[in-house]
Amino acid sequence: MSTVIITGAGSGIGLAVATKLAALEYNVVVNDYDADAAERAAKEVGGIGMQGDVSNEADVARMVARCTEAFGAPTHLVNNAGHVHQSRFVDLAPEDFDRMIAVHLRGTYLCTRSVLPQMLKNKAGCVVNMASQLGQIGGIELVHYSAAKAGIIGMTKALAREVSTQGVRVNAVAPGPINTPLVRALSDDWRAAKAAELPLGHFGEPEDVAETVAFLCSEAARIYVGQTLSPNSGDVML
């Protein structure tokens, strides 16, 4: 049976992914920075909830150990934990830049590093990294967020080249604006301007992204390596 760790899964896209994969009979470990959110989501999907900061090495080790104790080594990892902060670049404080990189880029690195040795030993595994279309095109007042997500796309490609021949598939998803608490935390003006730019004229839903993640986790995606799939309402067309 497949076992997945999903970070940042207490709400939004992460919760939708957890719900989808649980319905597909994965063992699910739900991580969130908010302990109550993690427990609520885990109860909702029939999994295990684990509070933890993905940028903290000890928290990540504890999460993977708990998963292994309950279900065996994870066969799948969805690096979804996110953080948003809006600022013009000239006003961007170093601590806000550092936190953005820590959650998105360092968190993806730490979580993947923690599960990868066992996947390589088993010659099988799947990692899905949550990027963003802003990592491809950039976003006003979101330079630090865009930089972190671009880094995830680059990490995905490079790691896929390293480990794909050893049975581990690594891919990314780059959603456009999605109706989540994270996006709703941005200003009304930002969200209105972004919606007006979209060919579809509206944001996506968390379930739209969950379907993409579920595909990449499945055997149907067995030849997808180092790819970035983009459920983005037409914001980026590649």
Distance between the termini: 35 Å
CATH topology: Rossmann fold
- Find the count of extended strands (DSSP E, 2+ residues): 7
**How would you spell out the order of helices and strands?**
EHEHEHEHEHHEHHHE
Q: What's the level 1 CATH class?
A: Alpha Beta
Shape type:
globular
Average pLDDT metric: 96
Structure, described:
This protein has 238 residues and is of the alpha/beta class. The protein has one domain (3-229): NAD(P)-binding Rossmann-like Domain (Rossmann fold). The chain is 50% helix and 13% strand. The chain has 9 helices and 7 strands, in the order βαβαβαβαβααβαααβ. The chain has helices at 12-23, 35-45, 57-71, 94-122, 134-137, 143-163, 181-184, 188-197, 206-217, and strands at residues 3-6, 27-32, 48-51, 76-79, 125-130, 168-173, 228-229. The chain has a 7-stranded parallel sheet with strand order 3-2-1-4-5-6-7, with helices on both faces. Strand 2 (27-32), helix 2 (35-45) and strand 3 (48-51) form a beta-alpha-beta unit. The termini are far apart.
Name a few traits of the molecule.
9 helices; globular; alpha/beta; seven-stranded parallel sheet; 50% helix; 238 residues; Rossmann fold
Short summary:
Helix content is 50%, strand content 13%. The protein contains nine helices and seven strands, in the order E-H-E-H-E-H-E-H-E-H-H-E-H-H-H-E.
List the helices and strands and how they pair.
Blueprint: E1 3-6, H1 12-23, E2 27-32, H2 35-45, E3 48-51, H3 57-71, E4 76-79, H4 94-122, E5 125-130, H5 134-137, H6 143-163, E6 168-173, H7 181-184, H8 188-197, H9 206-217, E7 228-229
Parallel strand pairs: 1-2, 1-4, 2-3, 4-5, 5-6, 6-7
